[in-house]
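1st attempt posting a full record on here, be nice pls
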Amino acid sequence: MGLLLGDVLATVAIIVLSGLAAWAGGLLSALLFPERTERASLDFEYRPWVTFFIGLGLMAVAAFVATVLFTPAVTRAIGAFLYFAILGIAVFGSGGLFRLIARRVHRAGGAESEYRALAKAGMLVTGAELLPLFGWFLLLPFVLISSFGAGCRAMFFYRQRHSTAEAPPHVEAP
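the predicted structure (as tokens):
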């Protein structure tokens, strides 16, 4: 039995909508949590391999536990929740990657505003991940694992320092 046109259209829709969701999630996390995604961005810029290997180790453990929990019907919901938590943390980390690329796009003059640079950076990353073969099998796993590592470091291993001193009042020049 061959593929029907509906099967092909459903597969294309799943791929396109998954890319759109990844773009929107990374952009939203970068806009809602600027300090944390900036920390993830610095991890991507200065420690990319450390971030990748941390993400690889943590993802292997979390995916193993989620797979073990997903197998019996009783704990299937917990396993599914763990899979979605992995993807959520990876989307959070991809906001840091979007910030890194947005700085470079903005510096190169490819965008008039920081928001437009962030949106273009997200489109560049998700567009490259949607490329057949190279994007699906090389770039997407690398970005997913690195984003999970950067997201874990930014969410769980980063302590935000709150300043007790107030900022000086802004005085406008006459």
